[in-house]
Every structure is written in C-alpha cells, then in structure tokens.
Amino acid sequence: MPLHSSKLPDSENVERLGGTDKDDSELDSHAQELLREYLANNSEEYRRLRDLRKKGWENSQGDKYFKRQRQTADAPDEKMHEFFYNMMKNIAVLLY
C-alpha cells in the first residue's frame, strides 16, 4: 500500500503486517523486560534506584503519606486552595 494512500488497511492486512495492538503490547512488554535485564546487569545506578523504589513500595509510611496528600488535594482548606491556584497559574505561565 502506498504511503500517501488515505485508505486504511483492513484488519487482515494489519495482522499480516504484524500491527495488531496485542502484538504491540507483547513486544513492548518483552522490550521493557530486556531493557530492565540489561540495565540490572550493566548499571550500578539503575540497581540502586531499583532497590530504592522497591523499598519505597514496601514501606507503609509511603501509603500514609500519599493518602494524606490525596486528602489535602481533594479537600483543601482556604490556604491550600490558594496555593494550588497559584501553582497552576505559574505552570500556565511556564507553558505559555
């Protein structure tokens, strides 16, 4: 099929070309696993970060901290409401 064609390929052609979502997600997962394995074998910094991340996920204090953060964001008092408003204004200025 020419690159400039506006006709979308039918599902039979997509499968033949190897472009199904299922294939893509399996390839992505496999590629991620290969990358993690490579980095674990070749990067001390990656191993340290991986271990810190694991330690953080296993710590119940982290759950308590993020629960408090969610509660503050979901039901802010007047001071926090103003803080969030100004933060969003600053982000908008940076993006503009």
From TrEMBL:
Region (Disordered): 1-29
Biased amino acid composition, Basic and acidic residues: 7-29
Protein name (database record): Uncharacterized protein
